[in-house]
Amino acid sequence: MKKTNPFYLSKEWRKIRKEVLVRDHYECVWCRKRGEVTTLASATLEVDHIKELKDYPELALDKDNLRTLCKKCHNERHGRIIFEKQKKKKFDDEIFHW
Ligand SMILES: [Zn+2]
Per the database record, which ranges form the HNH nuclease domain (predicted)? Predict the structure, then answer.
């Protein structure tokens, strides 16, 4: 298990997280783009940092940098990034061995 960043336990984050959920009407914004409605009734909703917290700590509490995603979309987003890195690594290895 990854250790939870203490930021996610802060009072400020909890407050802003709630505000983002309300702004997005407690609905996953990615699902909405696909024409699906995913709300708390059918999924776990999480608030995502568009520019990642570790890269842009100054945008941690900037609502323009935050969006509501369901757990599935959130995993997809982070999974895809890992996948791209792996692909790139494989490509580099191939060049190296060639
Ligand atoms: Zn979703």
Answer: 15-75
CA angle 54, 70, 76 (to 5 degrees): 65
Output the CA 93–ligand 1 centroid distance in Å. Answer: 34
CA of 31 to the centre of ligand 1 (A): 4
Helices (H), the chain: 11-23, 29-33, 71-97
CA 94 to centroid of ligand 1, rounded, Å = 35
User: 12-54 pLDDT, tens per residue?
Assistant: 999 999 999 999 999 999 999 999 999 999 999 999 999 999 9
How far is ligand 1, taken at its centre, from the CA of residue 71, in Å? 7
CA end-to-end span of the chain, whole Å? 37
- What is the domain partition of the chain in residue ranges? 6-97
